[in-house]
Structure formats: C-alpha cells, structure tokens
C-alpha cells in the first residue's frame, strides 16, 4: 500500500463503515468535536479525512444556510457514501498532505480520528493551519492510548494470536497518537502555537461481540486481509474474552476515550 494511502477501504467497506462503524463509534464524537471547534452560524468549515462525513454533517447543522462545509478525503468509496448522505456539503477528493485550498480559506478546520493515518502528520497539520484564516479555530480528535480502551487492547492481543501481527497492527494503529506529549510535539513541530489537549471519556456500543468483530473486519482494511476461517477464530475467542463488557441487553459496551486538540490562529 502506498504511503499516503493508509487505512484505505473498498466501497463495500465504506458502506459497512457508514451503517455500522459510524453509529457504534464515530457519531458520538461529531458533536463534541464540533463543540470544541466552536463552529458558528455562517462559518466556512473544512473536515479533513472526512470519511463518510459524520463530522461534516454535524458542522452543516451548525453553520446554517449562510455557511459552507467542505469534506475532504483520499478515499473515493468513503466520498461516494458521503455524497449520497448529504448533497449540500462539498465533497472533495484529496490528500491531507497537500490540501487543494488557498491559504486562510476556512474559519474552522476540524478532523476526527484521521490524523493517525496520515503518513506525514506534521505536513498535514501544517496544511490545516495554512488553510485556516486568522481568528479561526482548529480541532483535531485522536484516540487516547490503548490502555484507556481495555476491550480493544484485548481484541488486539487476540488478533495477534489468531490472525498474526499484521492484523493486530491494523487494530492497534488507531491508538498510535495516544501519548499526550508526543501529540503536543506534533502540533508544535507544525508551528501550531498554544495547542490545548483535552481528554474526553467515551464508549463504543455494538449489538453483540460477533457484530463488533464483523464490523472491525469488514469496515476496515482488515476486510482484504483475513480469511473467513481467521475471522471465525477471532470471533470465537473474542466472544469468550470480551464477555465482561456484555450488558443485559446483549450489547457490548466498551470504554474508548479520545483527545481533542484545539488551537486558535491569531
Ligand atoms: C477512521 S476514518 C475517520 C473518518 C471520519 N473522520 C469519521 O469520523 O468517521 C480515517 C479516514 O482518513 C482518510 N485518510 C487516510 N489518509 C488520508 C490522506 N492522506 N488524506 C486524506 N484522507 C485520508 C481515510 O480514507 C478515512 O476515511
């Protein structure tokens, strides 16, 4: 896989992502990230690494008819699903490392759970800062460390045993920016002064352990990596190990915390 194309999924996986991953994990963060970004009526907002567009849609609800929302992503499958969901948003295909916008184009630049997949994170943060207007605000969400997501830590360990290190690496990759000091250093290296990092607690909720495993595989780059047999083994061991997170309705509810980094441009 070419470097700028990490965490890429097929159109089928993008459908699974929108119908299963987004309600289970990502939708709950769109409000807090939009709040942290301070999006107001009439703002011009850019969502970088927008995926199927859950944050961009939250932004649209806040900017109203006077505003403008652009969602940018590298993945055509994600953008196709996004475009069907909300035609009033401008969906652009592009690389976060070379944003196709003039300097100071936006009042708000926001991004949730994408920075960890950008190969040159400093370059991407520089681009976000460049396209932000003076007086504008940046908000970037990344997952907190794996030790604040115990169920996922267990899933990563099971995947390493049942499916090999590469598969475990895909499951662990989203947590790579969990360390606050490292995260702060990235923003400083991009020339972003006064960035503040706030830790937010959250949870994920899937209908069952089986569904969690299915979605984690079918809605992610694991879709092209695991055989049905490997997936069965992953599901069987997960069913036993993750039983402690299953609530009386049969759903699985696990902790998953995030850092939201914000900065104001002067
Ligand atoms: C885990 S998804 C998050 C999507 C969305 N922000 C959400 O909250 O549902 C990460 C996204 O980053 C995108 N991505 C990865 N590398 C990229 C790059 N270099 N430029 C733009 N988008 C990229 C992927 O295509 C994917 O849609």
Write the element-wise H/E pattern from the N-terminal end onward.
HEHEHEEHEHHHEEHHEE
Please, what is the average pLDDT? 94
Shape: globular
Largest beta sheet, briefly?
7 strands, mixed
Strand order, main sheet: write it out.
Answer: 3-2-1-4-5-9-6
C-alpha Rg, in Å?
A: 18 Å
* Helix/strand class: alpha/beta
Helix fraction bin: 40-55%
What is the end-to-end distance?
Answer: 38 Å
Going by CATH, the architecture would be 3-Layer(aba) Sandwich
Chemical compounds bound to the protein: S-adenosylmethionine
Name the CATH homologous superfamily. Vaccinia Virus protein VP39
The CATH class designation is Alpha Beta
Uncertain spans: 1-5
CATH topology: Rossmann fold
Can you describe this structure?
The chain has about 270 residues and is of the alpha/beta class. The protein has a single domain, classed as 3-Layer(aba) Sandwich (Rossmann fold), CATH 3.40.50.150. It has helices at about 10-35, 55-65, 75-85, 120-130, 150-165, 165-170, 180-190, 210-220, 230-240; strands spanning about 45-50, 70-75, 90-95, 105-110, 130-145, 195-200, 205, 250-255, 260-265. A seven-stranded mixed sheet has the order 3-2-1-4-5-9-6. Strands 7-8 form a two-stranded antiparallel sheet. Helix 5 packs antiparallel against helix 6 (about 165-170), helix 5 (about 150-165) runs antiparallel to helix 9 and helix 8 runs antiparallel to helix 9. S-adenosylmethionine binds near residues 4, 117 and 118.
